[in-house]
Amino acid sequence: MLVTSEGDGCGDRDTTEVELTQAQRESSTSLRSAGVRNEANAPVRTCVGCRRRGLAADLLRVVAQKAEDEQPAAVVPDPQRRLPGRGAWLHPVAACLSTAVRRRAFGRALRVSGNLDISALEHYVENRHEHS
Ligand SMILES: [Zn+2]
What we know:
Residues 1-37 are annotated as: Disordered. By secondary structure, the protein is α+β, with helices and mostly antiparallel strands.
């Protein structure tokens, strides 16, 4: 019994050390390449409308969806934060949305030039406002 438990303990410890080292290596690599992996430590984002910083949980992520050449790109809400591409952050309220539109902040933040179709975003903010 004594021998068995000692053997298990050693095996567990070895495995844990290897996994830890790999995890650390992976997290530092993705931190450098993506630059967005800090969420756990500092979940703070800047709203493109009012330019105030807020908790990421309070802000809505939006992304640009590029369309055909003739059509404007669309700014769409990404409440699940899963859409690929460059994102911007916005308080999901009409005031911040209109401020961002007036400043053309979406184009700057999302690196999209030309007209932007924000109807999907407007719809999202309006519906959200009605609920709360
Ligand atoms: Zn705001």
